[in-house]
Amino acid sequence: MEATMVFDYDPTNAMAQKVVSFIRSLGIFHERSLDLEEAIRDAENGNVEDYDNVDDFFTQHNLL
């Protein structure tokens, strides 16, 4: 069984930062980023491929 918790907090609030840091330090929770954040990180790190169209995708991956 798995449950998800989402924390919305003001990152400029020192007490909120300490609480979040403490929760992370426990090491018993699995953290995951939002899909959008992960996509942005992939784009920034160059882990995104660019294709002109679907045919180009299939050709570059030798699927045609």
Low-confidence stretches: none
Radius of gyration: 19 Å
Q: Would you tell me the structural class of the helices and strands?
A: mainly alpha
Mean pLDDT: 88
Shape summary: elongated
Describe the largest sheet.
none
Number of helices: 3
**Number of E-state strands:** 0
Order of helices and strands: HHH
- Our estimate of the beta-strand percent is under 5%
Please provide a brief summary of the model:
The protein has 64 residues and is an all-alpha fold. It has helices at residues 14-25, 35-44, 54-60. It contains 3 helices and no strands.
Describe this structure in words.
The protein has about 60 residues and is an all-alpha fold. The chain has a domain at about 35-64. It is about 45% helix and about 0% strand. The protein has helices at about 15-25, 35-45, 55-60. The longest helix is centred in the N-terminal third of the chain and has 12 residues, at about 15-25.
How are the elements arranged and paired?
Elements: H1 14-25, H2 35-44, H3 54-60
Task: Fill in the keyword field for this structure.
64 residues; 3 helices; mainly alpha; elongated
